[in-house]
Specification:
Layout: H1 6-20, H2 25-55, H3 57-75, H4 78-138
């Protein structure tokens, strides 16, 4: 930025003294200091008004709303939620597949027991026929 060394400051003072003159130099310094004071006062008032505006309830509410929106954004991490839902769906599908296999095995067992019971019944009927035939032959 602008940096002034002692040589530049001395040069500016010499030029100001030559242009303004030694008689009007105190008036110029006084005007410059008054201008600097008014500039400082203006900046202080501006800063105070900005702080006052920032402290108003409306801005606090807006700030609160912005913070809530950021929290909602964090809660809406869709990618992770989608991954977890997909994982739970896969787990559910695996459980259903296992249950279907178990049901098929159970059905096969039931069918095999029915077949064996049917065969046993046929054997019993055949034995009964043979007994009745043997008994008939004996009479």
């Amino acid at each position: 930025m602008l940096t002034f060394g002692w040589g530049e400051i001395l040069l500016v003072l010499v030029i100001v003294i030559v242009v303004v003159g030694p008689k009007d130099l105190p008036k110029l310094i006084k005007q410059f200091s008054t201008f600097a004071k008014s500039l400082k006062k203006l900046s202080r008032e501006f800063k105070y008004s900005l702080n006052e505006i920032a402290d108003q309830e409306e801005f606090k509410e807006i700030n609160k709303t912005i913070m809530e929106a950021k929290n909602i954004k964090d809660d809406l991490n869709i990618k992770d939620k989608f991954k977890s839902e997909a994982k739970s769906l896969k787990e559910t599908a695996n459980i259903i597949e296992k249950e279907v296999k178990d049901l098929k095995n159970l059905e096969n067992e039931i069918n095999s027991t029915k077949e064996t019971s049917t065969l046993d019944e046929k054997d019993v009927q055949n034995k009964n026929k043979n007994k009745t035939q043997d008994e008939a032959d004996l009479i």
